[in-house]
Specification:
- By secondary structure, the protein is an alpha+beta fold.
- The longest helix has 16 residues.
Length: about 325
């Protein structure tokens, strides 16, 4: 905590007791680098300064603002939890109440509870796992039930009662800035004298993780159809990647004759998800009569495409159309 006072990161949601602002930061920073997450947090706070504003928004608007962050279930859960909070008359102030919010796990509940309400709860994230594993020389895999329980108990025992919020943030920053995954700053570490991993030469081996799920590959083919400044899109169904986001027609959805008219823009464009690698072919076709498409597709003005939240892979398709010199009368996001 002394180290934190001198070297802790200055972040816009720190120093506030606003549970909404803290919760929003924690959700955004799941699976997101802090440099990118900070910009999104500022954008959300400007557009939705209160939880009531967020609850009043449509899901499409929330997804659109989230576009580019990935893991879109976080945005849907955020929106659903905002409705829970408003319906309850305010932000819950117990760990159990916070944990009951859609999309909130043990770590997020402890972080919000300790920082916003001063609750004595240990928030154990990846940075905390790393610091504790190295300092105490713990080889239990952190992504197992046994490991999660062991590290949570240890972190709870270390908590200075009444100062959990500061301690949790200090430990997170210490892992992010001092005890980093690669090339940690051991020689200037204030915990060097008591660090088991440094003494035993196991810094690079800790923490231990069980082998990850095998990455699967998936192939997709999209065709961007233009008909008199309109194009068909559909909302992605539940139970698959990108639920609730919008995409153009899949090549398999159009007739064989239409497929033959399509102009190939790119082959095997690679897009990496957590446990999946996507390879996509992109086609373009301009017609004077709208082809028949399955139920679920709607025709929208190209100028209105920016109003629909889309996966990053689809943004790549729009960028390819622009790069190919084909007329694109709508903005393309970077």
């Amino acid at each position: 905590m002394h180290w934190f006072r001198d070297f802790g990161r200055e972040l816009p949601w720190r120093g506030t007791g606003d549970a909404y602002a803290i919760w929003l930061s924690e959700v955004i920073l799941q699976q997101t680098r802090i440099q990118q997450g900070e910009a999104y947090w500022l954008r959300f706070m400007q557009r939705f300064p209160t939880v009531e504003d967020l609850a009043d928004a449509s899901e499409d608007e929330v997804l659109r603002l989230w576009q580019g962050l990935g893991y879109y279930s976080r945005a849907r859960n955020l929106h659903a939890a905002a409705h829970q909070i408003v319906a309850a008359g305010g932000f819950p102030q117990t760990i159990e109440g916070i944990r009951a919010l859609k999309g909130v796990g043990d770590y997020t509940a402890a972080a919000i509870g300790s920082i916003a309400f001063g609750l004595d709860a240990a928030a154990v994230d990846g940075n905390v796992y790393r610091v504790l594993a190295r300092h105490f020389g713990i080889a239990t895999p952190i992504n197992t039930t046994e490991g999660k329980r062991e590290f949570t108990i240890l972190a709870t025992q270390l908590l200075p009662m009444g100062q959990a919020g500061t301690f949790n943030q200090a430990l997170m920053d210490f892992g992010a800035m001092q005890c980093t995954p690669q090339t940690p700053r051991c020689m200037s570490c204030p915990l060097a004298e008591t660090c088991v991993a440094l003494r035993t030469g196991t810094v690079e081996k800790l923490p231990v993780k069980m082998r990850k799920t095998k990455v699967q590959e998936r192939h997709l083919a999209y065709i961007y159809i233009r008909c008199k400044d309109e194009t068909p899109i559909r909302r992605r169904p539940a139970g698959d990647i990108w639920q609730g986001l919008w995409e153009p027609a899949e090549l398999s959805m159009v007739s064989v004759d239409s497929q033959r008219q399509g102009q190939l823009l790119a082959h095997d464009v690679k897009h990496v998800l957590t446990h999946r690698i996507l390879y996509a072919d992109f086609y373009f076709m301009e017609v004077t009569e709208k082809p028949s498409l399955p139920e679920g597709y709607i025709w929208v003005k190209e100028s209105a495409l920016d109003d629909y939240a889309k996966p990053r892979l689809i943004e790549k398709l729009l960028e390819l159309i622009l790069a190919s010199g084909l007329r694109v009368p709508f903005p393309v996001l970077g």
